[in-house]
Every structure is written in structure tokens, then in C-alpha cells.
Amino acid sequence: MSVTCEVALIKSQDLNEGEAALLRNAHQAALNAYAPYSGFHVGAAVRLKSGTVILGNNQENIAYPSGLCGERVAVFSAGAQFPEDDIESIAIVSPSPLAVPDTFMPCGSCRQVLREAELRQKTPIKIYLQARDEVVMVSKSASNLLPFSFTIQNGVFK
To answer: pTM of this prediction?
Structure first.
């Protein structure tokens, strides 16, 4: 068996205005992250099919693991506020010096949440990842970030 995962690297200047704006929104969200323990601020911006943008950021808690990652905050907020409006894309960023530009990725829980959102809405979510102001990694689907995700078969998650 062979598994292939596609992620493209794009220079910031090669993004279209919509993509650049989504990344700017995510960077703005990262400024409000609550990360006193890790110092690793993460911001996320979800663009819905309607064009609405929902922001999220990581929220740590001293009772670890009670906090949430920025991308899950944004995805869950979108689902709670606009359950009928599919997620088109998400930008996930970290301005932290701890973020390594070509390996900055969502954690496993966030990857599964993104993948399940795709499965629920039956359309892929384009994912933009950026550490600091470096190159942007782009995936056309969460399945590229989590190739062995749980899936839905006959209406049942497996």
C-alpha cells in the first residue's frame, strides 16, 4: 500500500488577495491568543462559503489539556454560529519564534476535526499554514494532513 499527501509551498507574494486577507485575519487572531504556558500563539481564520470569516485562537488553561487549539476554536465557532454554511478554507498561523516554517502543522486532534468537517459537509476545506511570515503551505483537503482519518460509511463514522 502506498499513501501520498500533497502540500504545496507558496511564497506570500504569490497569494491572491482573498488568500492574503484570510492569512492577515489569522495573524490578527493570533495576537489575542491566551498562551501563558507554552508561549506558542496560534490564530485561525475560517472562510465560509457565504464569505463570512470566523476567527479563533488558542486558549490554554492551567488544567491541561482543558484548553483548545486555535483552529478548533474557529471551526467549532463556525459550526455553532453558521451550521448550514460550509467551510471553504481556513488559515492557521503562528507568529511564535517556536513555530518552524516548513513543519508548522495542526495537531492530530485538529486534523481529525478538520477532516470530519469535510466529511460532514461533503466538500474539501482548503488549508493555509504559515509560521511567522514565511512561505505558506497549502493543502486542498484535510485528508492530505491526515490520510488515515476516521471516515463516514453509510452515515456512520468509522
So the answer is: 0.92
| Count of the separate structural domains present in the chain | 1
Cα–chain-centroid distance for residue 125?
9
Residue 1 domain flag: no
Residues classed as catalytic: 71
Range of the domain at 151: 8-157
Q: What is the dihedral of CA 92, 94, 99, 102, to 10 degrees?
A: 40
Cell of 105: 502543522
- Considering the chain, what is the average pLDDT of its residues? 92
CB atoms within 10 A of CB 143: 20
Residue 15 lies in a domain: yes
CB atoms within 10 A of CB 15: 18
2 in a domain, yes or no? no
